[in-house]
Amino acid sequence: MFEDFVRENNLQGYRLKQLYQQYYTEAIESWDALTTWPLDLREKLKKAIPFSKLENFQEYVSEDRKTIKALSFTKEGFPVETVLMKYSKRNTICVSCMSGCPVGCTFCATGQMGFNKNLDTQEIVDQVLYFKRKLSKEGEKITNIVYMGMGEPMLNLENVVRSIDILTDPEKVALGKRRITVSTVGYIEQLDQFLSMDLGVKIALSLHAPNQELREKLMPTAAKNNPLNKLMEVLKDYQERTNKKITYEYILIKDINDKEEHAEELAELLKGQIALVNLIRLNPSPLIPFKPSSMNKTRLFQAILNEEGINNTLRYSYGDEINAACGQLANIQRNAKQNH
Ligand code: SF4
Known about the structure:
alpha/beta, 2 domains, 11-stranded mixed beta sheet, 12 helices
């Protein structure tokens, strides 16, 4: 995009560097702030390239003010949700790679809203830049990025990879590769392709069930064509090659996947791997028919994993009251205080 503009206008290479520096690194607020470019060139750029492809950002802030959900819209009017979580000295941005999602996992509100479109590279990066600008006004920085918002990254792989390139490029957003996590439900072919690129980012698998049968019930579209045994082979190969830890996300759903035998089966499945299981109690949504596991069941599940030597954490859900927690991004705004 910027590269084309520079080439088409016969500009010298240093103009591109100036643009990268101010737009991505300094996170300027508008094209008018691109002061390293002369006014006539800036005006030309303004006409050729929108400052942000996502527009009409609205913010919803949690009661403790530590979680902020930004709702924005594509040019076609499709909603996109992005979440900033400010906890434990981290500023983590949860980005979306799609508006809606075609995968339709039964426990996920995004999956129930249907699919609008794959976001292009700039629309993904725009979400990060929006919060980078906001944080830099507060004297803060982004520390982590997770691709865990709306959509399945493996089904929009090209744009996800290109956005990672921009976010980790030392001349652009310059984030450390290990500060980025890509989460997938596990489309084997695309995941294999993604892992073979060895981008240095972290990988998380949305597992949510310890066996194929239950996985097919919870995530029918993804699980049917991507058998769990083959999926695990791909991840084990990657781990043998790289020695890198894999995170497994496991949403605990009342009476569905939270029994003792599920914990035992999960421990068996992950035995011998360098794995971290992120347990998350289901975040309720009016769009889904499930309830979260009780705290007692959750603790028992965790105790079994501990006993079996499986590294795990119970992840606190941020932003539930503004529908900004995991699996709740579906353009529903409730109990939310809106920032203007
Ligand atoms: S869990 Fe991920 S892949 Fe499944 S429906 Fe939700 S957003 Fe899509």
